[in-house]
Design goal:
Cyclophilin-like_dom_sf; two-stranded antiparallel ribbon; Cyclophilin; membrane; Cyclophilin-type_PPIase_dom; 2 domains; alpha+beta; 3 helices; ten-stranded antiparallel beta sheet; elongated; transmembrane helix
């Protein structure tokens, strides 16, 4: 026969077992919560490390990805302030003799406020254009002159060569077309003359093709006289920042030619 004392002892033992089991479950839950918290903290640390470190491993930094005035990134592009345009550029009575460069390959270095653009000039296919460009460079005609026009839809060119920055300037003379592609195709890196509707209005203005462009042939086309060999990536960065007037207007990142030097290719190291 079980006495009351024995029953109370059994009840105490059952109570102790329940309490011990509850305490054990509480300890397991607390351990699991600590583990979850530690994993969460470790994950957050890894995310923060990726945000802060990976851009630098990829070669970028706050300094290398500076937004322009309109907020467009110009990654890797460092431009000094562009100088003011000329008000009264030099004028000349006639185009120079093409015989001075005929059959030669020249190298033009355009020093700009955003870096150098190097162009190989073809005196064999475009002697009159190359002679004019070399002459104007020697005379300091382009020192300085803003690149006043950027087109970003269908036609992909940066236009330069007018010291006034207005887009109507000339050196005082004009000449006709030469080395015009019959198919109207102007590959990336091409340098060609800009002109009015008059085929004999070539003067000082030229354009750099930063992406393959097709131009009309009905009006006579445009004289190709060179190819960019260095600095096209910089022109592409300026183009990526866009124009301040939609698809056709002044580049948002002001770029200006500071000086132009021209030498024979054979003189290059």
């Amino acid at each position: 026969m079980v006495t009351r004392e024995q029953e109370r002892a059994r009840a105490r033992r059952r109570h102790d077992r329940v309490q011990a089991k509850a305490a054990e479950q509480a300890q397991r839950r607390a351990k699991q919560q600590r583990t979850v918290l530690l994993v969460s903290l470790a994950t957050l640390a890894l995310v923060l490390a990726a945000v802060l470190v990976l851009p630098r491993l990829a070669g970028s930094s706050d300094e290398d990805n500076v937004p322009d005035a309109a907020g467009a990134p110009t990654s890797g592009l460092h431009c000094s302030p562009a100088p003011a345009a000329q008000t009264k550029p030099k004028q000349f009575p006639a185009a120079p003799d093409p015989a001075t460069v005929k059959g030669k390959t020249l190298v033009a270095t355009l020093t700009t406020n955003c870096g150098d653009i190097v162009i190989e000039l073809d005196g064999t296919k475009a002697p009159q254009t190359v002679a004019s460009f070399a002459f104007l460079a020697k005379q300091g005609y382009f020192d300085p002159s803003p690149c006043h026009r950027l087109t970003t839809q269908a036609i992909f060119v940066l236009q330069c060569g007018d010291p006034t920055g207005v887009g109507t300037g000339t050196p005082g003379y004009g000449f006709g077309l030469e080395n015009v592609p019959a198919n109207g195709q102007y590959p990336k890196g091409t340098v060609a003359m800009a002109r009015t509707n008059d085929p004999k209005s070539n003067g000082s203005q030229f354009f750099i093709v930063y992406d393959h462009t097709a131009l009309p042939t009905s009006g006579g086309g445009y004289s190709i006289f060179g190819t960019v060999t260095r600095g096209l990536d910089m022109v592409g960065s300026i183009a990526a920042a866009g124009s301040s007037a939609g698809a056709d207007g002044p580049p948002k990142t002001p770029i200006s030619i500071l000086k132009v030097s021209v030498t024979d290719k054979k003189a290059q190291p």
